[in-house]
Amino acid sequence: MSETVRVLISEEEVEARIQEIADQINRDYAGREIHMICVLKGGVFFMCELAKKIKVPVSLDFMSVSSYGDDTKSSGVVKIVKDLDQPLEGKEVLVVEDIIDSGRTLSYLLNILKNRNPHSVHLCTLLDKPERRVADVKVDYCCFDIPDEFVVGYGLDYAQKYRNLPYIGVVELGAD
Ligand code: IMP
Ligand code: MG
Questions:
Q1: How far apart are CA 126 and CA 145, in angstroms?
Q2: CA 99 / ligand 1 centre spacing (Å)
Q3: Helices of type H across the chain
Q4: Which of 84, 33, 49 is nearest to 167 (CA)?
Q5: Whether 44 contacts 16, CB under 8 Å
Q6: Ligand 1 pocket member 153 (CB < 6 A)
């Protein structure tokens, strides 16, 4: 079977929108600091682009939770694969995610983070599929709402491939 990727959101559109979200975050966090938490691996490309555009002091930490195998459906099971290195006590936490789909991963993760006594916790995502939501999650910053299609690129994978694409695309499987 052949695999092709159709462009859904171009590199230029992604970059321009990340700048807009960064401008908004810069206004909202003026005079404060941000402790960014990247949800690996998908969030890493977005976090790097976003962090470069933030003007207030930024510190970074990484966490890995998994709710997916090499499949395109949520298992509903979330496990911490790698925990944060630093405590969150008193910090202004901004969780940076690639995509919110059912919301199960984030609702589980946000509960864990809030129990560590941060000063605040906000959520920033590159993509959101609101139609697919099962668990309630408050999204504070979202670059793009997208339809219910399986997307890749800009950190997002299909069976670990395509994370390095500089745009967001939809994988199309041919019958040949
Ligand atoms: P949720 O728990 O259903 O919200 O799933 C969130 C995670 O599923 C994301 O962080 C991604 O790793 C993965 N995921 C959901 N939708 C897609 C998609 O369209 N492409 C690639 N990964 C996805
Ligand atoms: Mg993710």
A1: 9
A2: 6
A3: 11-28, 44-52, 104-114
A4: 49
A5: no
A6: no
Pairing of strands 58-66, 34-40: parallel
Exposure pattern of 66-93 as b/e (b: 16+ CB <10 Å)? Answer: ebeeeeeebeeebeeeeebeeebeebbb
- How many whole angstroms from 143 Cα to the centroid of ligand 1? 15
Which of 61, 83, 98, 101 is flagged as catalytic? 101
- Asked about 148 being catalytic, the answer comes back as no
Residue 149 CA to residue 129 CA, distance in Å, equals 8
Quick: pLDDT tens for 124-136: 999 999 999 999 9
pTM, to two decimals: 0.93
- Tell me the two tokens of residue 119: 């000063």
Structure tokens at 104: 């199960």
**Residues that place a CB less than 5 A from ion ligand 2:** 39, 42, 98
pLDDT digits (tens, 9 = 90+) for 31-44: 999 999 999 999 99
Q: 53: closest CA among 32, 27, 31, 86?
A: 27
